[in-house]
């Protein structure tokens, strides 16, 4: 069995907790959980839209989005532009990237685009320097690039594993290193990393992807702590976004026990929730809102109890009674 690249330049993962509350249940969980954990967001606020509750972004805001040609990156770029920000789109696919740029400009938004491989450190550093010279300082960096594979570790080629680690982890290092020094110099900025539920709990057949996403969580947590300890950088904010399954066409449908109650959300809905949390300076955003809380709670349990609960949710492909 050869490596099958399911998709690229978007993030997400099918796990045992790929669930979403709707209606009154989502509001109940939101109010209960918001008191004890930051970054809780029901994924659908249809009654009161986020545009009604927030003022436009500051004039001159410059948002740079990697992986902007598809999925959540595309929606983030469009919605940031609708809020009045100047958007910089980075993607390795020139055709899709140009399509996003054209769509934003047709709506009278200001947008620029660059075709780049974010796994190439030299390219990232050179383009960041070029942008500072030609445009202005980047206010917000959304590090969203990622690829996903579903295959047992024994079926993955070495070059495929390396590409997974480079895209899902090392590229975030290169992007942050390229823009953070300038933010520190200006004492202002915001770094957003799009992570996955695979960065919170292990997933079978996704070993390199999970390893990279766990590494991304460590990267963002450590940067947050480093910035917190320096009074010069206290106004530089960080946000980690943890996603379950998002309907971008890249991932299989959720197969957990409760698919009739909870399902995946669209990239547009996810982008709305992310921007809402970013504008509130949340350090962590979980989509669906209760996912991170449940995973953290599950991780406190003994191993065998965790296995029982995990297998119970994943009844479609594994017996919940299994004591592995």
Automatic annotation (TrEMBL):
It holds the Pfam family adh_short. Keywords: Lipid metabolism, Membrane, NADP, Oxidoreductase, Transmembrane, Transmembrane helix. It is a multi-pass membrane protein. GO terms for cellular component: lipid droplet; membrane. It is found in: Membrane. It comes from the Eukaryota. Coiled coil: none annotated. GO terms for molecular function: all-trans-retinol dehydrogenase (NADP+) activity. InterPro entries: NAD(P)-bd_dom_sf, SDR_fam. Belongs to the short-chain dehydrogenases/reductases (SDR) family. Catalyzes the reduction of all-trans-retinal to all-trans-retinol in the presence of NADPH. PANTHER family: PKSB, RETINOL DEHYDROGENASE 10. This is Short-chain dehydrogenase/reductase 3. The gene is LOC118270090.
């Amino acid at each position: 069995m050869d490596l099958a690249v399911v998709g690229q330049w978007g993030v997400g993962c099918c796990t045992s907790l790929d669930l979403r509350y709707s209606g009154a249940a989502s509001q109940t969980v939101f109010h209960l959980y918001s008191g004890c954990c930051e970054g809780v967001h029901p994924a659908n606020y249809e009654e009161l839209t986020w545009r009604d509750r927030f003022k436009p972004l500051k004039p001159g805001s410059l948002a740079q989005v990697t992986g902007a040609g598809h999925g959540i990156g595309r929606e983030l770029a469009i919605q940031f532009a609708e809020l009045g920000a100047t958007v910089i789109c980075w993607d390795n696919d020139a055709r899709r990237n140009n399509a996003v740029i054209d769509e934003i400009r047709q709506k009278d938004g200001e947008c620029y685009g660059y075709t780049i491989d974010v796994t190439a450190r030299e390219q990232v550093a050179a383009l960041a320097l070029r942008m500072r010279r030609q445009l202005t300082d980047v206010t917000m960096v959304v590090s969203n690039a990622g690829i996903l594979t579903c295959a047992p570790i024994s079926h993955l080629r070495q070059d495929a594993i390396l590409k997974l680690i480079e895209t899902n982890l090392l590229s975030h290092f290169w992007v942050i290193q390229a823009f953070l020094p300038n933010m520190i110099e200006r004492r202002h900025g915001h770094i957003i990393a799009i992570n996955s539920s695979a960065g919170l709990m292990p997933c079978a057949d996704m070993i390199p992807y999970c390893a990279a996403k766990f590494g991304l969580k460590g990267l963002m947590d450590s940067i947050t702590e480093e910035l917190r300890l320096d009074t010069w950088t206290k106004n530089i904010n960080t946000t980690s976004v943890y996603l379950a399954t998002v309907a971008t066409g890249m991932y299989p449908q959720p197969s957990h026990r409760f698919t009739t109650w909870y399902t995946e959300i669209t990239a547009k809905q996810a982008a709305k929730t992310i921007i809402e949390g970013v504008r509130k300076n949340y350090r962590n955003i979980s989509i669906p809102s209760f996912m991170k809380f449940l995973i953290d709670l599950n991780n406190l349990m003994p191993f065998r109890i965790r296995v029982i609960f995990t297998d119970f949710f994943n009844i479609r492909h594994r017996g919940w009674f299994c004591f592995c």
